[in-house]
Specification:
This protein has about 350 residues and is of the alpha+beta class. Helices cover about 35% and strands about 25% of the residues. Helix 10 links the parallel strand 14 and strand 15.
Length: about 350
C-alpha cells in the first residue's frame, strides 16, 4: 500500500482496473466511484486519465448507453502493463535486509526541477566513486533504503567530498516524504550497503581514524560489526567509533603533555570522552569501552577515574599504539569485558 502512495495516477488506474475488473466489462461511473474512494482525485482529472488509456489502447469502449454511461473492456496491453508495474513495485520494496550489510547514515533532498536525491555519508564510498564509475540499484525496506552497487545498475553514484549522491525514483517514497521534500525539507534516513559491492571490507569504511579502523578489522574476526557510527553531534545523541548491539568503543590516540595536570585541555578532552561513555552505560545498562594511550596510565588521576567508571560498566583500556600487536591485545580485553567468545574459539568465517 505504501508503494501505491506515490505512483503516477495513470499507473494507479491501470493497477486498479486490472485488479478490480480483469477481463470483465465495467461501467465508467462504477469505475469512477470506486477508484475515487481509494485515490483522492478530481473526477475531471480521472476522465482525462481514462482518455489517455483509450488513446494508448489499454481500454476500449464496447457500449455507449448515454453521455454519462459507457461500458469499457480491458485489452491485453493493459494486462501486460499492469503486470510490469507490479513487478517493478515488488522488486523495489523488499521484506528483509540482506546479510553482510553495514548501516550508514543518509538524507533525502528534493531538486528544484523535480525529483528526489539520496545522499549517503561515507568517505570510503566517495573515494571509490571517484576512482571508477559505480552503478547502483536502490530498494526500499520499511523506513530505510538498501543500495546495491553494481556495474549495470540504473543509478550512477556521484562522489562528493565525504558522501555520494544518487537520484531516487519517486516510487520509493511514501506520500508524507514526497510532501516534506516538496516543502524544502531534508529527511535523515538509514541506508544499508554491502561493502563487497564496492570492492571494500567493512573495516575499510571506518575512516574516522586509523586506530579505529585497525581495531574494527581485528574485532570483525570475532563479532559482526553492522553499523558505521555517525560523528555528527547534531544528529546522534552519542558519538562513538564502534557500535554493536551490546557495547560501544571509543578510541583516542591523544597523549598527555608531560606537565599536563587533571585540568589541562588535553585531559579535559579525554575525560569528556570517558564521561560520554559512562553516561551511555548508565542510561543503557550496556558496556562502554574507552581505548587510551598508555601514556595516560602514568597519570594517577586517570587510574582513579578508571576504577570509578568500571563499577558502572564503563571500562578504560590503556594501550601502546606503537606496539604492532596492540589490536590483538585490546580485542582480548574487549572479549573478556563483554563476555564474548574470543581467543578460545575460532574467528568468524
Amino acid at each position: 500500500m505504501r508503494a501505491w502512495e506515490t505512483l503516477p495516477r495513470v499507473h494507479k488506474l491501470i493497477l486498479f482496473i486490472h485488479e478490480r475488473f480483469r477481463d470483465a466489462p465495467f461501467e465508467g461511473s462504477q469505475l469512477y466511484n470506486e477508484f475515487l474512494n481509494s485515490c483522492s482525485a478530481r473526477r475531471d482529472v480521472l476522465r482525462q486519465s481514462m482518455e489517455e488509456l483509450k488513446k494508448k489502447g489499454f481500454v476500449v469502449t464496447i457500449q455507449k448507453i448515454s453521455h454519462r454511461r459507457r461500458f469499457y473492456k480491458t485489452t491485453p496491453k493493459l494486462i501486460e502493463r499492469a503486470i510490469s508495474i507490479k513487478e517493478e513495485l515488488d522488486g523495489a520494496h523488499v521484506a528483509t535486509i540482506p546479510k553482510k550489510t553495514l548501516q550508514l547514515r543518509g538524507y533525502l533532498r528534493s531538486l528544484k526541477g523535480g525529483g528526489a536525491h539520496l545522499n549517503i555519508f561515507s568517505k570510503a564510498l566517495s573515494d571509490v566513486a571517484k576512482e571508477r564509475e559505480i552503478r547502483c540499484q536502490i530498494f526500499r525496506h520499511e523506513n530505510s533504503f538498501i543500495v546495491r552497487g553494481s556495474q549495470v545498475g540504473p543509478r550512477r553514484a556521484y562522489a562528493g567530498e565525504c558522501d555520494i549522491d544518487l537520484s531516487l525514483p519517486m516510487r520509493l517514497l511514501y506520500s508524507w516524504e514526497a510532501a516534506a521534500l516538496m516543502g524544502g525539507k531534508l529527511l535523515p534516513v538509514k541506508v544499508y550497503i554491502i561493502p563487497e559491492d564496492w570492492g571494500l571490507e567493512k573495516w575499510e569504511l571506518f575512516t574516522e581514524s586509523k586506530e579505529a579502523q585497525t581495531l574494527v578489522k581485528e574485532l570483525s574476526e570475532y563479532l559482526e560489526i553492522n553499523v558505521l557510527p555517525s560523528h555528527n553531534y547534531n544528529v546522534n545523541k552519542w558519538r562513538f567509533d564502534i557500535e554493536t548491539d551490546d557495547f560501544v568503543v571509543e578510541v583516542t590516540a591523544y597523549k598527555p603533555r608531560r606537565q599536563g595536570g587533571p585540568h589541562s585541555s588535553q585531559a579535559s578532552v579525554v575525560r569528556s570522552k570517558v564521561l560520554d561513555a559512562l553516561l551511555y552505560s548508565l542510561e543503557t545498562n550496556k558496556n562502554s569501552i574507552v581505548i587510551l594511550s598508555s601514556a595516560w596510565a602514568e597519570k594517577g588521576y586517570m587510574h582513579d577515574l578508571k576504577l570509578m567508571t568500571e563499577k558502572h560498566g564503563c571500562h578504560i583500556i590503556f594501550v601502546d599504539f606503537d606496539d604492532v600487536g596492540w589490536p590483538r591485545k585490546v580485542v582480548d580485553q574487549i572479549l573478556k569485558i563483554t563476555k564474548c567468545p574470543g581467543s578460545a574459539v575460532s574467528p568468524l568465517l
